[in-house]
TrEMBL record:
The lineage of its organism: Bacteria, Pseudomonadati, Pseudomonadota, Gammaproteobacteria, Alteromonadales. The chain crosses the membrane at residues 6-28. It comes from Pseudidiomarina marina. Pathway: Cofactor biosynthesis; ubiquinone biosynthesis. One of its GO terms (molecular function) is monooxygenase activity. Keywords: FAD, Flavoprotein, Membrane, Monooxygenase, Oxidoreductase, Transmembrane, Transmembrane helix, Ubiquinone. The keyword Transmembrane applies. Residues 10-339 form the FAD-binding domain. This is Ubiquinone biosynthesis protein UbiH. It comes from the Bacteria. Belongs to the UbiH/COQ6 family.
Length: 386
């Protein structure tokens, strides 16, 4: 029997896409919600943003339910209907389409800042009390309540504190929640690229021995968002190149999949690290999103995992949240994160080698996956984040 609803006071730290989503979802249930973000309202310009996310169907369904998806500017969304993955050094190739999955698309590419601004605006309209340009400097929690002190000296008492403050989570560190991690020793270089051939709504990824390169289709059919993951030394070399030499190297690695390429933005690099907190609960503190787990971007699932945390956490707060239900939530979400982390690691180990036998085996593996229907269906499900 479910317990009757009781409105709670909840403080969310971090106004990224996961913090804003959970804050909005809780507010729509009738809770009193404060969101603390150390920056201001996210702003974006006319040009496509560098950071994008490939959102799976479950993330989009959540955003629709929150009344956010409908508000996103259509001209900034890049639905993708196909995926092509190949190995630069072997005959391995796999491709699949939304039609094979019985869907209209496989997901949509969204610019992070566009989504965050829309979430911010809807959350404000719905009564989330956003405290911007401030940060939590101290928190204490026990079995009954949480106290939070801000840099501005403001103090808040709440029933729960949700930390969605990203992979370096100061809240997690303050609570001394231990981390399991390993450094991929790779950097993800991102940029917007103009392509000669239209991308036709297909997300492409090629595996090189030094790491994968992904081209994610933006709304303009001649623009893609590049994520070039490369081992540290290779990444440093790439970062130091002038624009034209960088593009020449990208061109050479691309197997001409999109014709002649041009840089359409600056380049930026993000260190790639796999980590997850061993505990996501500490009395009334809850970790969520990248604060709880972060993974390699090669399957584009980091934000999708975070949205999964939100989807599963909201029902716990729809009735009167209790520790037993929160523990069950933690177990379920940890299993999802660890499954994804293991899959990413297997991929990275399988492809991060120039050994000729390994190349042959993965060539055969790719070919089999492309032609054996049940195996292919499994891969499509993984790509859909299911
Ligand atoms: C190169 C790259 C490509 C990626 N591509 C994809 C993809 O295609 N699909 C996908 O699903 N995922 C992708 N990801 C992962 C995705 O970007 C992250 O999982 C997602 O952004 C995490 O969101 P978050 O809200 O948990 O954290 P963040 O976006 O990191 O937000 C944390 C927020 O907390 C704030 N903050 C921090 N400390 C404090 C404090 N003390 N007080 C107040 N505020 C604070 C920060 O200012 C920030 O706004 C990619 C990641 C990388 C690096």
């Amino acid at each position: 029997m479910s317990t009757p609803f009781k409105a709670q006071t909840i403080v969310v730290v971090g106004g990224g896409m996961i913090g804003l989503s959970v804050a909005l979802g809780l507010r729509l249930q009738g809770h009193r919600v404060y969101l603390i973000e150390r920056s201001g309202r996210p702003e974006y310009t006319e040009s496509p943003e560098l950071r994008v996310s490939a959102l799976a169907h479950h993330s989009r369904a959540l955003l629709r339910e929150l009344g956010v998806w409908q508000r996103l500017p259509q001209q900034r969304l890049g639905p993708y209907t196909g995926m092509q993955v190949w190995d630069h050094d072997s005959f391995g190739h796999i491709e699949f389409s939304a039609a094979e999955a019985g869907a209209d698309d496989l997901g949509a590419i969204v610019e992070n800042k566009v989504l965050e601004q829309t979430l911010w605006d809807v959350a404000t309209e719905q009564g989330v009390q956003i405290i911007a340009d401030d940060e939590v400097v101290e928190h204490t929690t026990n079995a009954l309540q949480v106290t939070v002190k801000l840099r501005s000296n403001q103090q808040l008492q709440a029933d729960y504190l949700i930390a969605a403050d990203g992979n370096r989570s100061p809240t997690r560190e303050r609570a001394k929640l231990p981390l399991s991690f390993w450094d991929y020793e790779q950097t993800g270089i991102v940029a917007v690229i103009k392509t000669e051939k239209p991308h036709d709504g297909i997300a492409r990824q090629v595996f090189l021995p030094t790491g994968p390169i992904a081209w994610l289709p933006l709304n303009d059919t001649h623009l893609v968002s590049l994520v070039w993951s490369a081992d540290e030394d290779k990444a440093q070399h790439l970062q130091a190149l002038d624009d034209q030499t960088f593009i020449n190297q990208l061109q050479a690695a691309s197997d001409q999949c999109l014709g002649k390429l041009e840089l359409a933005s600056a380049r930026a690099g993000f260190p790639l690290r796999m980590q997850y907190a061993q505990r996501w609960l500490d009395d009334r503190l809850i970790l969520i999103g990248d604060a709880a787990h972060s993974i390699h971007p090669l399957a584009g699932q980091g934000a999708n995992l975070g949205f999964g945390d939100v989807v599963d956490l909201l029902p716990v707060f729809a009735s009167n949240a209790n520790h037993r239900e929160l523990r069950a939530w933690e177990r379920k979400r940890k299993a999802a994160a660890v499954t994804m982390i293991s899959a990413m690691e297997a991929f990275k180990r399988g492809f991060g080698t120039a050994n000729p036998l390994a190349k042959l085996v993965r060539g055969i593996g790719f070919k089999a996956a492309n032609s054996i229907q049940p195996l292919k269906r499994q891969l499509i499900k993984a790509a859909l984040g299911e």
